[in-house]
Amino acid sequence: MMLEQMTSQKPHPITTFDIHPLLAKRWSPRAFSKKLIEKESIMALFEAARWAPSAYNEQPWRFIYAGADNVNGFERLSSCLMGFNAGWATKAPLLVVAIAKDNSSHNDKPNPHAWHDLGLALGNLTLEATARDLYMRQMGGFDANKVAELYNLPAGFKAVTMLAIGYLGDASE
Predict the structure, then answer these.
(1) Interval 24-76: pLDDT, tens
(2) 3-state secondary structure the chain
(3) Whole-model pTM?
(4) How far is the C-alpha of 28 from the C-alpha of 137, rounded, in Å?
């Protein structure tokens, strides 16, 4: 994909082939508006994730989230961010940590598809967010061990990625 010149907000993609407008609209900014996300929209994001396909319909994903309006919860999740991400991601009104369950429920053996299935769920979540004019950025710059400790994750559950989600903000900030 080639990009046109940057606007003050986001790049405008020029795709080689026509793709669905939601896919072309998706972008991972680091500038978010302070506008809070409505509870109905937050729940719709997770409902979209729930409908992702998964091996044996295991749905081996879990999410922990906190909105900026939940000061204690937001600060707790923010404390898991590392380095550069700690500076910009805390300006998003919603933080999410995505977790994968390593073993299958039906036989308690390793599920080699768990992270793939989580990725499909995040793809659904991303499209739902885009349809609602929300933007998100996934991050690897967080402390997965701290997530496990703070949230008492059971054995076999691993924090895989964090997300900052919100309405598009001013890139100059």
Answers:
(1) 778 777 889 999 999 999 999 999 999 999 999 999 999 999 999 999 999 99
(2) CEECCCCCCCCCEECCCCCCHHHHHCCCCCCECCCCCCHHHHHHHHHHHHCCCCHHHCCCEEEEEEECCCHHHHHHHHCCECHHHHHHHHHCCEEEEEEEECECCCCCCECCCHHHHHHHHHHHHHHHHHHCCCEEEEECCECHHHHHHHCCCCCCEEEEEEEEEECECCCCC
(3) 0.89
(4) 5
